[in-house]
Automatic annotation (TrEMBL):
<protein>
    <submittedName>
        <fullName>NAD(P)H-dependent oxidoreductase</fullName>
    </submittedName>
</protein>
<comment type="similarity">
    <text>Belongs to the nitroreductase family.</text>
</comment>
<keyword id="KW-0288">FMN</keyword>
<keyword id="KW-0521">NADP</keyword>
<feature type="domain" description="Nitroreductase">
    <location>
        <begin position="7"/>
        <end position="185"/>
    </location>
</feature>
<keyword id="KW-0285">Flavoprotein</keyword>
<dbReference type="InterPro" id="IPR000415">
    <property type="entry name" value="Nitroreductase-like"/>
</dbReference>
<keyword id="KW-0560">Oxidoreductase</keyword>
<dbReference type="InterPro" id="IPR029479">
    <property type="entry name" value="Nitroreductase"/>
</dbReference>
<dbReference type="Pfam" id="PF00881">
    <property type="entry name" value="Nitroreductase"/>
</dbReference>
<dbReference type="InterPro" id="IPR033878">
    <property type="entry name" value="NfsB-like"/>
</dbReference>
C-alpha cells in the first residue's frame, strides 16, 4: 500500500524551504481532498482560509509563538469553525443535498428537523467544541493528501486563536480559528527530518474484544 509508505515518509516539518512553492495543480488537489472530508451529519460547518499574503503571515507569525513555518512555508491553512450554528446552516445543507440528489427539499425536512434538534440539545460550549472538532477531520485529510503528493506539512496548535480571530476579522464573519497547518517543502537544514518516527506498536495501540 503506497499510502503507508508515504505516511512513514511524512513528519511534522519544522523548517521549510521558502523558495519552493506548492503548484496550483497540487493545491487544487489538496483542496478537493479537504472538501471530501467526513463531518458530522455531513454539514461541514467550517471554512478553510488559505493564506498566501506575506504581510498577513508576518502578523500571524507573531500570534503563532513566532514559529518560522508560518512565513517560510508555501501556504498557511487556517481551519475555522462556525462560532454560532444557526438553523439556516442546516437548511442550506439540506437544500444543497436536495439539489445534488435531484429531489424535493421537503423530502429532507424530517431529517433536517432531527439534526436541528440534536444540535440544539448541546450547551453553547459543547456546540463550540463539537464544531471545532469537525475541522480536525479536515486537517487529517490535508495531512494524508500532502503525504500522498510528497508535500511536507505541519499541523499546529501553537497559536493564539483570539489574535488570529482579530487579525483575520473572523468574528465579523461568524468564524473562529480552530487549528492551523503549514504546507510546502522541507529545508535541507531541518534536523527534524532525521529523527526516527516514534509510534506505539500496533499490538499496544489496538485491542480486540
Amino acid at each position: 500500500m503506497e499510502l503507508i509508505k508515504n505516511l512513514k515518509w511524512r513528519y511534522a516539518t519544522k523548517k521549510f524551504d521558502p523558495n519552493k512553492k506548492v503548484s496550483p495543480e497540487n493545491l487544487k488537489k489538496i483542496k478537493e481532498v479537504i472538501q471530501l472530508s467526513a463531518s458530522s451529519y455531513g454539514l461541514q460547518l467550517y471554512k478553510v482560509l488559505v493564506i498566501e499574503d506575506r504581510g498577513l503571515r508576518e502578523k500571524l507569525k507573531a500570534a503563532s509563538w513566532n514559529q518560522s513555518q508560518i512565513t517560510e512555508a508555501s501556504h498557511l491553512f487556517v481551519f475555522c469553525n462556525y462560532s454560532n450554528i444557526k438553523d439556516k446552516d442546516i437548511d442550506d445543507h439540506m437544500q444543497l443535498r436536495a439539489n445534488m440528489e435531484g429531489i424535493d427539499v421537503d423530502n429532507l425536512k424530517g431529517y433536517g428537523d432531527f439534526v436541528k434538534r440534536k444540535i440544539s440539545e448541546k450547551a453553547d460550549h459543547e456546540k463550540h467544541q463539537w464544531a471545532a472538532r469537525q475541522t480536525y477531520l479536515a486537517l487529517g485529510n490535508l495531512l494524508v493528501a500532502c503525504a500522498d503528493l510528497k508535500i511536507d506539512a505541519c499541523p499546529m496548535e501553537g497559536f493564539e486563536p483570539e489574535r488570529y480571530n482579530e487579525i483575520l476579522q473572523l468574528p465579523e464573519r461568524g468564524l473562529n480559528a480552530a487549528v492551523i497547518a503549514t504546507i510546502g517543502y522541507r529545508s535541507k537544514d531541518d534536523q527534524t527530518q532525521k529523527a526516527r518516527k516514534v509510534r506505539k506498536p500496533i499490538e499496544l495501540l489496538f485491542e480486540v474484544k
